């Protein structure tokens, strides 16, 4: 098992038909035992998503799809189970891949594994039980395009 903590830069490219320019982003530390499901949860939290009832997937450079294995969505595709695959086993520094949250609104993220390894105690403090964001920038758009309490996003 890999014992290395990775640093992964995640840029929000866009969603809901809108491109984010400039792209807001976050840098995460991801430990050797963390799954892609845990990483997806960390990304969604760091990008202020509150309605988590949507499907998501990671697409690696070799075109493997990692997500919730659901044969009703894309039965012609082979999905690898996000709850079983460990991020640090599948990725190495320099790898680039994509993450999509909510297939309807299509929130697209470009992810890059940074060359620098991470020391969780130095970067975060107590060793976190899951992936965490340690740095960030940019304005995060609302998941549904809402700008006020009574705005329906349309």
UniProtKB/TrEMBL annotation:
The record lists the membrane-crossing segments as none
The name this protein goes by in its record: Plasmid pRiA4b ORF-3 family protein
Q: Which residues form the Plasmid pRiA4b Orf3-like domain?
A: 25-116
Originating organism: Paraconexibacter antarcticus
InterPro entries registered for this protein in UniProt:
MM3350-like_sf (IPR024047), Plasmid_pRiA4b_Orf3-like (IPR012912)
Q: Read off the Gene3D superfamilies from this record.
A: MM3350-like
């Amino acid at each position: 098992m890999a014992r290395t903590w990775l640093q992964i830069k995640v840029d929000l490219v866009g969603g809901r038909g809108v491109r984010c320019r400039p792209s807001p982003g976050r840098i995460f530390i991801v430990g050797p035992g963390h799954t892609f499901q845990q990483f997806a949860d960390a990304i969604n939290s760091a990008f202020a998503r509150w309605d988590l009832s949507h499907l998501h997937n990671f697409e690696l450079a070799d075109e493997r799809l990692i997500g919730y294995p659901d044969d009703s969505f894309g039965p012609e595709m082979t999905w690898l189970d996000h709850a079983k695959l460990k991020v640090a086993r599948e990725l190495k520094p320099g790898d680039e891949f994509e993450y999509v949250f909510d297939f309807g609104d299509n929130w697209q993220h470009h992810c890059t594994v940074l060359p620098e390894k991470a020391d969780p105690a130095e970067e975060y403090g107590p060793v976190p039980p899951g992936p965490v964001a340690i740095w960030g920038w940019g304005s995060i758009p609302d998941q549904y395009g809402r700008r006020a309490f009574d705005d329906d996003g349309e």
